[in-house]
Amino acid sequence: MHDVAVIGCGAAGLLAAIFAGRAGARVVAYDGAKKIGAKILISGGGRCNVTHDVVTPDDFNGNRNAIAKVLRTFTVAQTVAFFEELGVVLKREETGKLFPVTDRARTVLDALLRAARDAGVDLQQRRISSLEEIDAPCVILATGGRSVPKTGSDGHGYAIARSAGHTITEVFPALVPLILEPGHWAMTLSGTSVIAELSVRAESGRVLHRETGSMLFTHFGISGPVVLDISRHWIAAKGGALVANFLPGETFESLERALIDARTPASVLRGRMPERLVQQLAPASTKLSREERRAFIRSVLELPLPVIRDRGFDYAEVTAGGVPLDEINVATMASRKREGLFLCGEILDVDGKIGGYNFQWAWASGRLAGIAAGRLRGGPT
Q: Are residues 61 and 186 in the same domain?
């Protein structure tokens, strides 16, 4: 009855279904969640951060040469044009993030579902657990990873991929808040945000990764864009330290010179960070000994944050790890392990920064898989 079956109707799966249908294939798309596109609806605070105005392979973790080949097939400009074609006009915010002008994720999902139906896609709410349940010569696996499992991405797609001969790299949360040890003073600043540079360091002190951006203190620890971006690197380091610099751009020497000339330690910080953080970092004494001054500088520029764990997949925006890209023909997203199988989206070993990058990967890889599978079974467009 069908030429192409898509397993998973998230961002990548819906694009795959739409483009397979547009290529002339008879398409069925399955999704086992209570609501199709649930993750799209909750993304971007319910507004759906569709993409970013500039997307490069350097914005991702994974095989960047392979990622580049996929991204080139569907640029940001083409993505914007595609959504405009569906009636979804996007706007650019100061951060470079692109959102629908309606500020409603529902606008994006409804447009995608409408486009799928217009392409003749048979949408079915049914959980598929094995390839043997599928009666179609081509299958596109777009089940996602393990992030926010309540939306349906509970990792069951990994078992399907393994059954087809694929390997799965270590899977762990990415873009996830971090929990600090109980009783740490940071919890008293809950609700306060600050621009900070965070670095993951090995036991030797070598910097493994560094990110700068907005950090939010919370009742459990830390969150905000810079924390989400650094989180997967802290997890991957397995024991690495997380260090905060609350005055990015300052050096030990420049801050020490400012302190010597300053009336009080607090005066050096005021206007450059929230007052609640100033009061926490600055010593009460106005005159500091050399050692006290150096300790104060270290607390501002190199403060160890005692992270004990991440908040887990329930709070992660994306999954790190998955099917390696070297097991995929990235010209078509076809499996190198089983003929007629294609993979796209978050099930692959690709994860990007916060800001719409992971959606761009989903749109590009899903479209590529859909076109290839659709042309294979439906004939040339």
A: no
